[in-house]
Amino acid sequence: IIPRKGNSTMTFAIVACDLEEQSWGVAVASKFPAVGAVVPFARAGAGAVATQSFANTSFGPRGLDLMESGLTAQQARDHLLKDDSDRELRQIGLVDARGGSTTFTGNGCFGWAGGIAGKGYAIQGNILASGKVVPAMEKAFLKTKESLPGRLLTALLAGDRAGGDRRGRQSAAIYVVKPNGGYGGYLDRWIDYRVDD
Question: Of 91, 92, 125, 149, whose CB is crowded by the most CB atoms within 10 A?
């Protein structure tokens, strides 16, 4: 997504992990089409990244590489944004291999925009119905006693019930990884669900 062309991902997302289960993932919903192809990135043993609001999709693989090399989520975030001339248009959430988390919302993101982070999760959104969406997602995520995919889905549904993207619904995705979690144990892609249009 290139800001100069006027495209942006109007989105709400949660990035989170379950260290006991050794899983990391992202759940996201948006008025933006095919949001699952743009926002969520995760790698077992490294962490997870959501890049949104004039998303720089290089933040996904680069952020995962940085966290896999030993940087914390905060250090990786700072490194990604350091030389980004469009940083004030960006929104990003990261969770690292140890459950460290961070979120960033640039001053140029369309309101309502903001985020919150805690141990093992980061939640952020832009062009939301109100400031109630992100706290509703956090409450649902912390209250739910399920595996990570279930907690991510619960948070996403809570964000939608609180108003979600103020422009409406067009796509959603849940992407979760864990070591050998994929079909036949050959890769780490455990859950990869997308709903488009």
Answer: 125
Condensed to tens digits (0 to 9), the pLDDT of residues 125-176 reads: 999 999 999 999 999 999 999 999 999 999 999 999 999 999 889 999 999 9
Mean of pLDDT over the chain: 94
| CA atoms of 16 and 144, how far apart (whole Å) | 13
Inter-residue contact 73 to 47 (CB < 8 Å):
yes
Note whether 95 and 122 are within 8 A (CB): yes
- Chain centre to alpha carbon of residue 67: 15
Contact 76, 66 (CB under 8 A): yes
CB neighbours (10 Å) of residue 142? 12
Query: CA triplet 134, 137, 143: central angle to 5 degrees?
Result: 140
